[in-house]
Every structure is written in C-alpha cells, then in structure tokens.
Specification:
This is Exopolygalacturonase. It comes from Citrus sinensis. The protein is mostly beta strands. The chain contains three helices and 28 strands. The protein has a 28-stranded parallel sheet that branches.
Amino acid sequence: MAKSNILALFLSLLMLSAAAALDVDVTKHGAKQNADISQALRDAWKEACAATTPSKVLIPQGTYQLSPVTMEGPCKAAIELQVKGTLKALTDPANVKDAGSWVSFNKIEHLTVSGGGTFDGQGAVAPSECEKDDYCKKRPIVSNLSFNAITNSVVQDVTSLNSKQFHINVIGAKNFTFQRVTVTAPEESLNTDGIHVGRSSGVTITDSKIGTGDDCISIGDGTQQMEINKIDCGPGHGISVGSLGKYQNEQPVVGIRVRECNISNTSNGVRIKTWPASYPGTASDLHFEDIKMNNVSNPILLDQVYCPHNQCNAKVPSRVKLDRVSFKNIRGTSATAVAIKLACSGGVPCEGVELADISLTYTGPEGPIKSECTNIQPKTSGKMNPPPCIARATPSGSAIPGRRRLSFNF
C-alpha cells in the first residue's frame, strides 16, 4: 500500500475515532445548580461507561450539591470525569454516616479526573461533636474521593477541600498518577490525610500542594514502587510511611521514593512509623532525598514506638522490619531542638539506615540542635548538622516505654 494511502487511512481512522467519542453533560440528565445532582451524575456515568469509544462526563462551571455517589467500572473504553464546577457534599451526618466515601471510583481502567474544579466535602461545617479525646468517633467517616482498583489512570488539576476525613484514599491501584492536585483543610482538622495510598503499585504523586490537619501523604501497607516528588506540604503532619503493624497480615511496603519536596510548618517532616507490640511486617527500600524544611518539628523521624493515644503496650517492641532506609540532602529549619530522631525496634533491628548531607538549623529556646538514636547506629556521610548520634540499646532489647524517652548521645 502506498504511503499516501496509509496516511489517508490513518487520518480517516483518527477522524472517525474523534467523531465517535462521546461527551455527556450532566445537565442533559437534569443536573441543576444548587441542587443534588447525584442521580444525574449516575445516569451520565452509566451512559459514558457503556460507550465503546473514549468518553467524557462533564460537570460544567457552577455550584452543585452532591450526595454520596459511586462511579462503577469496568467501562468499555477510556473515560474522563471533567469537573469544571464546584461540588458540595451534604452536611447532615444522616446522609453520609454509612457511606465510607463521598465520591468513589471502582474497578476502572484508563480513568481521567480533571477540569480544574473543586470537591468540597464541607467538613469544616459538618455538624458533629468531634473531640480529640474520643478520636472523632461521632464524626462521619467519609473520604472526599476514594479510588478502588484503578489502573493506568490519572487525576489532575482538581482540588479537594475540607474533607470530613481522608481527602483522597487509594486502594488496589496500579500505574496511577496524581499531578497538579490541591488539597486544603484547616490545620486543626483531625484525620484529614491529604492522599492515602495502600496495597497499590506504581503510584506517582507530583507537582501538588497539600495542606491539611494530618499527613500530607500517608503510605499504608502493600504499597510498592511509589514516587512522590515536587510536593508543597504544610500545614499537616508531613509525609509518612505508616503507620504499620497494627493489623494482622499486612503486606510489605517496598520501593518508596520521596524527592524534591518543600515541607513547611508541620508537626513532622519525613517520617516512618510502626506500632509497638505489632504484628510482623516489613518495609524496605525507603528513600527521602532533596527535601527542604521550613519551621518543621521532627524533620527526620523514624518511630517504631508510634503510639499516638497511649493505648498500646509500648514496652513490647515492634515486629515490623525496616531495611534500606536513607535520608539524603535534607536542609532547612527545625522547630524542635531534636531534628533527627531514630527510634528502631529493640526486637527486630533496623538495617541499612543511612544519613547523608543533612543541614538543619534550630534557634529556639530548647538548646542546641541535636540527634537522638535508640537501637540503631546509622551510616553517615557528607555534612551532618546536627551531628550524628550514637546508638543506645533499650534494656533487654525492649522498646522505649514512651515516645519521648529517647537517649541523647553525642
């Protein structure tokens, strides 16, 4: 076949594909501004998901109410949800108490969520009697966005605002990218992790801004080969692997790389956390590099006696094995005198922990900047400020009875 004929055939197929692509506007299914559009969205999604060519569901500019809704797959072709407007969750707990998630996506390949719009969970105004001492038990446990078993997909150019709990929850994903995502919630909002990922592989989070009341990004068990880069994190609790070891049969965490991030005004910087008296588990090949800290408490924290509410047996060591962990080229300002805290398990020792080119400063009232180590002698290289610590083993190989009773050794 002549090259001209091949080109003509290709162009014809391209034009046919473009002509056959399906765009579904939710307003065509009855969606109206300032009203609940959940049924219109379900109907539009059902139509688009059944298409045999790539399709798009459009939510145009404007403000819409939305009760909990699930976009179910698998779909017959690639599909996009383009949100240009603002979606507002309902605030009555009776409408969301058992939902688990506000907007869910299940079992979809080649999904795109885009459009520059906002998912407003209205968590800041949701009626509840949430108090810190009961860990928000009376608050609706609802994530803004939940992605379950999503493959070869992307979320880009959207905002998650004021979620009632986790903002974005990702479980069972493969090759899933988040880029140019904004997450915003008050610093005092409890359990509002920005993006939580568990039991997934090939997840990338990049070029995003996350400020919330809990971890900017949290990494749960079973997460493998994850890339996090170019994140502006703060306020919040920093970027965390874990917590791990709380539940039986947790899957290994392998291959986490956090690079080129800015962390500001957070209660932790980069952190690994496992529970004492834990179930067995492993986390390996965890690397944090090229991180800038600005007024961050606990900039570098490896905490294997993590017990946030003192409702665990801290005298029994964690059984989560940590191996091949590095912190490199981490610089900036610490809000605490203890800038490096490495508290490894006394029962299952950490291995292959490395610190290199650390340049942190502290000018507060707690004294000179320092490091703390327990059950670990890290390998160090390059410039080290604060100076590296000397390992101290806890008695009888047990974990330290309390999170803040680590030794000071220089």
